[in-house]
Specification:
The complex is a heterodimer of chains A (399) and B (538). Chain A is an alpha+beta fold and 399 residues long. In chain A, 18% of the residues lie in helices and 32% in strands. Chain A is built from eight helices and 19 strands. In chain A, a hairpin with a 2-residue loop joins β10 and β11. Chain B has a domain of 201 residues: FAD/NAD(P)-binding domain (3-Layer(bba) Sandwich), CATH 3.50.50. Helix content of chain B is 34%, strand content 19%. In chain B, β6 and β7 form a beta hairpin. The radius of gyration of chain B is 22 Å and the shape is globular. The model of chain B has no long low-confidence stretch (mean pLDDT 96). Classes of the chains: A alpha+beta (399), B alpha/beta (538). Chains A and B meet through α2 of A and α2 of B.
Chain lengths: 399, 538
């Protein structure tokens, strides 16, 4: 009997890896769903400002992707997710969450209505088993296509100019959460006006065999408009500024949670707008309707915190003296270079955390070996920290 | 006729800052500006086709983050993007680069001297200690050492406490630092000429002193104590040029209900019964206000726009003696493409850094000798930046805007006005120096705006075009700025205040004088304070 070759040992390399490797000066990588993904390529600060000032390119190939099609695709998705997918026409994209029967979030993601009755679901975590189990009784086929689609986020104020220079005619008419198909060297290139940065930006989806060609065409077109590859750390700052959630930060996937009370419902994550009780039945509906009636336990808060010391891992209190114990904790924190604000996302017990109310955050920070502690006053805000007009402008401006 | 609560004279970034904080406090405020554009020297101007020039100030680092945040300047369009490093081109064809990344910087310095590379960390710590000391006082009013008011005593005690807290050795170092020359200071750490030359530039920028003049070590601090996103010593570009800063502050001012009037130059401050009553405009119109604030420099305010009889004799004399000498010029250039520098490899990160062309301490000092002789430096110290390397908004794609800050450049040539030939000569000295290191530079020039201190004075109104509204020497700092006894933004005339860079803590796009002045005015009016507190480094 012959020995079987072991499964791939070590990290996978995205089809864009050869180009990323050439641009990498700092050798800082982490693992993302089995792939090598860069923390940073040369300087986090400069990479961050590529997002806010010119064009940043981020490799999102490791995102989990599923192709869902068949006569029942819409009905299937409508039962899966909490929002009404009937409103999402072909050529449109929807941000969505899906829940377990207790109404707790399994994951969030984007659903691309590629063509009539054909969807791509894209998420952080892997859900093939759950998606198949949910498909019983529906005439749909679900294909796992993570490795079959290479993807790049192209984000920043000059991102339209770059893609326009690349010859993507008609892109100027593409609205936020729209998608278009183009021919790129004989293969289909899908471009969606989506992203994780709350800035003007697009995501590009293509057959991995054309990945390098796409990268080269993109960077060639970007020369005159400013273009830089970036790693996860810069993107993470932009994500918090946008007030977007991240799995394992703002919530845990309900189906992977061990301890009771550690998962969250969409209502507890500020995603009420994604839950449509008027549409046909969906997973978690009863539980969410009950929660809406009787009240939630937790509330996600966006915090504008005084001072300039980021509130990493902090407890949140209702008063400066910490009387009554903590009411919650910070889930993501950063200094926002573009807003010049000390911002964070956190989770607090209801009824705390009403918009415009104040809470106190206990911040520890180190200066030359010694630790300091401060109680910083924070204001709960209900808008994203950064949401520039150019994000939604159609046609987009040159910068 | 309407009487405003306050009138601010001059819509530079400090005038606008005072205006914004007063308007936020609910006052009825008007800000008048003589030019048909706002910003004063914090301005982006469209003088050639689709190019926008930061035609006076050109970089941003000192702008107080507390003010940026409090006025929500990002909502009014401001974005400050950091840029990295600097390069000094050398006559022997080599160059000395400084880089963001500490280890890369260390390796580059080691190429010249391992000793200097190692010494740099001590130099940084010692300089940062001085920065930390002074940064704490930027957003507060300097205490009057002769006053017995509780707030002065309290602030003096705070400064004293901080100073004593350093320990004897470091107290001595601090006193030496505040009085020594940048050359002496650098000599204590480094042995390599080009490294010293590269670091010494910050000691003389905007100052009519040479690297060997006492007091220039402090000027170095003034260029180090800023920060971008908490990185002390970092520099950034305002997206769209420095005009974006004043535009954003003006936006905050107007959002708070303030009124902005351009083409409204002030001829005289009106004083009635020893109290400021308003201003008379150049066109004869009078505007009444209970509080009058001048954002102009101290000389222009008191020597040009007031009756001598309204001022005490000694104060008047002190203002006349205030040092505000023109020492630098500016050349703004539209380029048809990116110039190459022979010594720099293609794609070098130093293309987006500050560029300099003086590689020795002797050349630095000789540049100053020309100024003392009443002429421009024939081998000048240029601080060259190309903001369009990262900013897509200031020139068409593939084209560039180059900003050259040039030192030294006198206000008058041997005491008389500049001739146009001399202005061309000044430009040629700069162009020739750059072309020595960048052979294709001259062919790429589409347009150049040449600005001597005289031009800046005529256009912006700053006396002698001095970028700091008065030199940053010990005799003109803290409680001595601009005049002893008047360092708390109040003038000898009741109701007349000062908020420009002639006041503590001085020039640069800092907005601190404007904010501090607003706090004092609100306190006099017994209004709640709207000016934010210092974040603090600890």
């Amino acid at each position: 009997m012959n020995a079987r070759a072991p499964v791939h040992q070590g990290r996978l390399k995205s089809p864009f890896y050869p180009r990323l490797e050439q641009l990498d000066f700092v050798n800082e990588w982490h693992e993302w769903k089995g792939y090598s993904s860069a923390d940073s390529l040369y300087c986090e600060e400069m990479e961050y400002f590529a997002i806010r000032n010119s064009t940043a390119v981020f490799d999102l190939t490791p995102m989990t992707k599923y192709l869902i099609k068949g006569p029942d695709a819409l009905d299937y998705l409508n039962r899966l997710v909490t929002r009404d997918m009937a409103k999402i026409r072909p050529g449109r994209v929807a941000y969505a969450v899906w829940c377990d029967d207790q109404g707790h979030v399994i994951d969030d993601g984007t659903i691309f209505h590629l063509r009539e009755g054909e969807y791509r679901l894209c998420s952080q975590e892997r859900h093939f088993a759950h998606l198949l189990a949910s498909a019983i009784g529906f005439d749909v086929t679900i294909t796992h296509e993570t490795e079959d689609v290479a993807a790049l986020a192209v984000q920043g104020p000059t991102s339209f100019s770059v893609l326009d220079s690349m010859g993507l005619d008609g892109l100027d008419q593409l609205k936020p959460f729209g998608l278009m198909h183009f021919d790129f060297q004989g293969v289909e290139l899908m471009v969606s006006r989506t992203g994780f940065t709350a800035d003007l930006g697009y995501e590009l989806w293509i057959d991995p065999r054309k990945a390098i060609e796409l990268w080269d065409a993109l960077f060639d077109a970007g020369k005159l408009h400013g273009i830089r590859a970036i790693g996860t750390h810069a993107l993470e700052q932009a994500r918090i500024e946008a007030g977007f959630l991240a799995a394992y930060m703002e919530f845990l996937p309900a189906d992977e949670t061990i301890r009771t009370g550690r998962s969250r419902s969409p209502l507890e994550l500020g995603l009420d707008w994604l839950v449509d009780f008027k549409k046909p039945n969906f997973n978690g509906r009863r539980a969410l309707a009950e929660e809406k009636r009787s009240g939630s336990t937790w509330r996600l808060v966006k915090l504008d915190i005084e001072g300039n010391k980021p509130a990493h891992n902090s407890y949140i209190y209702s008063n400066a003296k910490a009387k009554g114990g903590e009411i919650g904790f910070i889930t993501s924190a950063t200094w926002s270079p573009v807003c010049k604000q000390n911002i964070a996302l956190g989770t607090v017990r209801v009824p705390h955390g009403q918009p415009d109310s104040n809470v106190w955050v206990e911040i520890y920070y180190q200066r030359e070996m010694h630790w300091n502690r401060m109680m910083a006053k924070a204001t709960v805000v209900d808008k994203p920290f950064w949401w520039p007009a150019r994000r939604g402008a159609t046609p987009p401006g040159p910068y | 006729m309407k009487t405003y609560d306050a009138i601010i004279v001059g819509a530079g970034h400090n005038g606008l800052t005072t205006a914004a904080f007063l308007a936020k406090a609910g006052l009825d405020v008007v800000c008048v500006e003589k030019n048909d554009y706002i910003g004063g020297a914090t301005v982006s101007r469209n003088l050639y086709k689709d190019w926008w020039y930061s035609n006076c100030s050109y970089v941003c680092s000192l702008l107080r983050p507390e003010i940026y945040r409090d006025l929500e300047l990002h909502k009014h369009g401001l974005q400050v993007t950091p840029y990295g490093g600097s390069v000094t081109f050398m006559e022997n064809g080599d160059y000395f680069g400084s880089y963001h990344d500490h280890e890369v910087a260390y390796r580059e310095m080691s190429r010249f001297s391992r000793h200097d590379a190692d010494a740099y960390k001590t130099y940084s710590a010692d300089t940062m200690r001085q920065c930390r000391f002074i940064r704490d006082f930027l957003l507060s009013t300097a205490p009057d050492p002769t006053s017995f008011k509780p707030r002065d005593l309290k602030e003096l005690a705070r400064i004293g406490g901080k100073f004593m807290g350093m320990g004897e050795d470091r107290m001595n170092e601090t006193i030496r630092f505040w009085t020594m020359s940048v050359a002496e200071y650098l000599d204590e750490y480094f042995e390599t000429d080009v490294i010293k030359a590269s670091l010494s530039g910050s000691g003389i920028i905007g100052t009519a002193l040479g690297i060997h003049s006492p007091g220039t070590a402090y000027v170095l601090l003034h260029h180090y104590m800023g920060d971008v996103d908490g990185n002390v010593g970092s520099w950034g570009f305002a997206r769209g040029g420095t005009g974006a800063v004043s535009k954003a502050i003006a936006g905050a001012f107007q959002a708070a209900g303030g009124e902005l009037r351009t083409e409204a130059g002030v001829d005289k401050f009106i004083v009635r019964n020893g109290k400021a009553a308003g201003v008379a405009l150049d066109n004869g119109e009078e505007i009444k206000a209970n509080v009058v604030v001048s954002a102009m420099d101290v000389k222009r305010t008191f020597l040009n726009c007031m009756d001598k009889s309204d001022l005490p004799e000694k104060f008047h004399r002190r203002v006349e003696n205030f040092k505000i000498r023109g020492s630098s010029g500016k050349i703004n250039i539209a380029l048809d493409g990116m110039p190459t520098f022979s010594a720099l490899p293609e794609g070098s990160s130093l293309y987006s850094s500050d560029m300099h062309f003086i590689d020795s301490m002797e050349r630095m000092e000789r540049a100053y000798d020309d100024w003392k002789d009443g002429t421009w430096s024939k081998d000048p110290y240029i601080d060259l930046t190309i903001p369009t390397v990262s900013d897509p908004t200031m020139a068409p794609p593939g084209k560039h805007f180059m900003s050259c800050f040039v030192q030294y450049c006198p206000h008058k040539i041997e005491g008389r006005d500049w001739t146009s030939e001399e202005k061309d000569g000044f430009r040629d000295s700069v162009f020739d120096q750059i072309a020595q290191y960048s052979p294709d530079f001259k062919d790429l020039v589409l347009h150049a705006e040449v600005r001597t201190p005289e031009d800046i004075e005529n256009e912006i109104g700053i006396t002698e075009g001095n970028i700091f509204h008065g030199e940053l020497t010990m005799d003109q700092l803290l409680f001595n700025r601009p005049v002893p006894g008047y360092a708390q933004y109040r003038s000898p005339v009741d109701g007349l205040y000062m908020c420009g860079s002639s006041n503590h803590p001085g020039g640069g796009i800092m907005a601190a004088p404007g904010a501090n002045a607003a706090r004092e005015i609100l306190s006099d009016l017994r209004r709640p304070n709207t000016v934010p507190e210092n974040f603090g480094d600890d």
